[in-house]
Amino acid sequence: MENRWRRSMLAWTLRDDGELKENRAVLTVRDVARRLNVSAQNVFTLVEAGKLVCHRIGLGRGAIGISEGDLALFLEQARQEPSKASASSWERLIRHWFFA
Fold first, then answer.
1. How far apart are CA 12 and CA 83, in angstroms?
2. What is the mean pLDDT of the chain?
3. How many domains does one find in the chain?
4. What CATH number is attached to the domain comprising 50?
5. pLDDT recorded at residue 61
6. Is residue 60 part of a domain?
7. Which of 52, 97, 48 is nearest to 73 (CA)?
8. What angle do CA 5, 8, 11 make, to 5 degrees?
9. Radius of gyration over alpha carbons of the chain, in Å?
10. What's the Cα-to-Cα distance from 87 to each of 82, 94, 96, 98, rounded to whole Å?
11. Which domain holds residue 34?
12. Do 27 and 67 contact (CB within 8 A), yes or no?
C-alpha cells in the first residue's frame, strides 16, 4: 500500500498546436531512483546537469517531478550499443592467444 501515501504530482506539456496537455504520470525523484536502481542524489545530479528533464512544482525551488516520457527519452539517449572496439581485456587476451 505504498502508493496510498504517495504525493500526487501533475505536469503540463505544451503541444505543437499551442494547447496544454495534462500529464498525470509524473514520477518523484524517489520513483525515478528506484526505476534506475540509483540513489536519489544521482537523479538530482542528472537533473542539475541538464541530462534529465524535470518539472519544478510549487513555490521556491519546488518539488521535482519527472514525466514518464522524459524518463523514457533519457533512457533512449543514454543507451549504448556494445561495440567490438570496447571488448574486455579478457576477450582481447583470448583473441590474441587463440586467433592470432
1. 39
2. 77
3. 1
4. 1.10.1660
5. 78
6. yes
7. 52
8. 160
9. 20
10. 8, 11, 12, 16
11. 2-80
12. yes
Task: Report whether pLDDT(93) > 90.
Answer: no
Instruction: Read off the amino acid at residue 47.
Output: V
Contact 26, 67 (CB under 8 A): yes
Whole-model pTM over 0.90: no
Residue 66 lies in a domain: yes
- Cell output for 5: 501515501
| Set of cell numbers at residue 97 | 592467444
pLDDT in tens, 11-45: 556 667 777 666 557 899 999 999 999 999 999 99
**Position 36 in a domain:** yes
The torsion defined by the Cα of 51, 52, 53 and 56, in degrees rounded to 10, comes to -120
Map grid coordinates 583473441 to a residue. 95
What would the grid cell of residue 41 be?
Answer: 542524489
Burial class (CB in 10 A: 0-12, 13-18, 19+), 63: middle
CA distance 66 to 52: 8
- Which amino acid is it at 94? I
Amino acid at 78: A
